[in-house]
Amino acid sequence: MKVRPQSLEERIEKIKEEIADLGDLRPGALSQQYNACGNPRCRCKENPSMKHGPFYQLSYTWRGKSTTRHVRREDVSQVKQQIRNYRRLRKLVDRWVTLGMELSRLKLQAQHEAAPRPAKKRRNTRLFEQNRV
């Protein structure tokens, strides 16, 4: 099946529209943390333990620097959506790059096919035979 450049361009435009509609973005991973306090009579010291929590943390690396941030319980659903949006962005950008490379290849191929081919030079075979010995 031959892919047309116009089809690729339409798919790229659709990706651009999807990216524009994503909303807030946030890289990283959200985790639940449970802690034990220093009070020897606290419930977190019992057997079985009932640690304090959950507490939510967002961990991410940006520009080579690892960071962890506390996330309030009431903000967890919003942060999860931002993380999903960021992951969606990464997938869309990967598809955009893949389609862009294919489009560039097709455009170069079309240019080469449309350009006139230079005439091949003929060698003087007699001269070539003499020098070969």
Describe the protein in words.
By secondary structure, the protein is an alpha+beta fold. It has a domain at 29-94. Helices cover 47% and strands 19% of the residues. It has helices spanning 5-20, 76-114, 125-132; strands at 29-35, 52-62, 65-71. A hairpin with a 2-residue loop joins strand 2 and strand 3 (65-71). Helix 1 (5-20) runs antiparallel to helix 2. The two termini are 52 Å apart. The model has no long low-confidence stretch (mean pLDDT 88).
Residues in β-strands, percent: 15-25%
Largest sheet: 3 strands, antiparallel
- The counted number of beta strands is 3
Extract low-pLDDT stretches. none
Ends distance? 52 Å
Number of helices: 3
Radius of gyration: 31 Å
Query: What sequence of helices (H) and strands (E) makes up the elements?
Result: HEEEHH
Biggest sheet strand order reads 1-2-3
Structural class: alpha+beta
> Could you say which overall geometry the principal axes of the C-alpha atoms support?
elongated
Overall pLDDT level:
88
Helix content: 40-55%
Set down the secondary structure blueprint.
Blueprint: H1 5-20, E1 29-35, E2 52-62, E3 65-71, H2 76-114, H3 125-132
Antiparallel strand pairs: 1-2, 2-3
Helix pairs in contact: 1-2
